[in-house]
Amino acid sequence: MPRVTTLVPALAAHNLRHGFGDTLVLHGVSLAVLPGEVVAVSGPSGSGKSTLLHLLGGLDTPQAGEVWWAGERVDTLGTQARAGRRAGRVGLVFQHHYLLEDLSVLQNVQVPAFLTGQDGISRARELLARVGLAAREAELPRVLSGGERQRVAVARALATRPAVVLADEPTGSLDRANADIVARLLLDLARAEGAGVLLVTHDDRLAARADRVLHLLDGQIVEEEGLALSAVSSQPAARE
Ligand SMILES: Nc1ncnc2c1ncn2[C@@H]1O[C@H](COP(=O)(O)OP(=O)(O)OP(=O)(O)O)[C@@H](O)[C@H]1O
Ligand SMILES: [Mg+2]
């Protein structure tokens, strides 16, 4: 018998529909991101990119449709259960770093581990070294530059070796030189660890580093290049 290997997507969405008031923003969005793959999402302002990212990260619940992380459906979980899964499986990076100002740089990187009941200190130190901030671990975020703070946010996003990394304009508030450093760290680290990355960006230079680019237009996904969506099963073979 030939051995059949099923690649479970790191992240999958099926037919997501979501809106606010009478306005439907997402009209049935489906996508899948494989482990180690980087997918960029672009689209006009107001097209629903951040809305989509919030649903994919389980920060909001879709009005219809499904969200899967590493083979587990999560949109149907309660808020607490979902937050617990998120801490272990999903790393988030936003345009603003959202570091906790009263915690040291090191403690900030440990936060996702704290949420899963671990201290994560050796992992946090390893990641700080990889983003070039090992010597700054005891400092408070406010003494760091914008680029350095965003590098801490990248380290934090990878702290629990998440299956999924979601990033919303992660370089949007940085100058070009710092944007390049942060983008390289985020993508190199995530790829090296086999995380699936979904990245919202207006920056063509950042999108060019992705394996595929999806466009969000009129509430739907249009794929620009690379694999056809139909070539990737977006659910694991066995759902039980
Ligand atoms: N919490 C909310 N309540 C009401 N409307 C919202 C809310 N969040 C988003 N919207 C609306 O949904 C639409 C999509 O917003 P979203 O922030 O997802 O766009 P975006 O593609 O991320 O835009 P940008 O590129 O400017 O960040 C917009 O019309 C926005 O006003
Ligand atoms: Mg946005």
Task: Summarize this structure briefly.
With 240 residues, the chain is of the alpha/beta class. Helices cover 31% and strands 24% of the residues.
Q: For the terminal residues, how far apart are their CA atoms?
A: 23 Å
Number of strands: 10
Structural class: alpha/beta
The CATH architecture designation is: 3-Layer(aba) Sandwich
Q: How many whole angstroms does the radius of gyration measure?
A: 18 Å
Largest sheet: 6 strands, mixed
Q: Which ligands does the model contain, each kind named once?
A: adenosine-5'-triphosphate, magnesium ion
Written account of the structure:
Helix 3 crosses helix 4. This protein has helices spanning 49-56, 79-89, 105-115, 121-130, 146-157, 176-193, 204-207; strands spanning 11-20, 23-33, 38-42, 64-69, 72-73, 90-93, 164-168, 196-200, 212-217, 220-223. The chain has seven helices and ten strands. Residues 226-240 have low confidence and may be disordered. It has one domain (11-231): P-loop containing nucleotide triphosphate hydrolases (Rossmann fold, 3-Layer(aba) Sandwich), CATH 3.40.50. With 240 residues, the chain is of the alpha/beta class. A hairpin with a 2-residue loop joins strand 9 and strand 10 (220-223). It starts with 10 loop residues before the first strand and ends in a 17-residue tail after the last strand. The protein is 31% helix and 24% strand. Residues 20, 25, 43, 45-51 line the site of adenosine-5'-triphosphate.
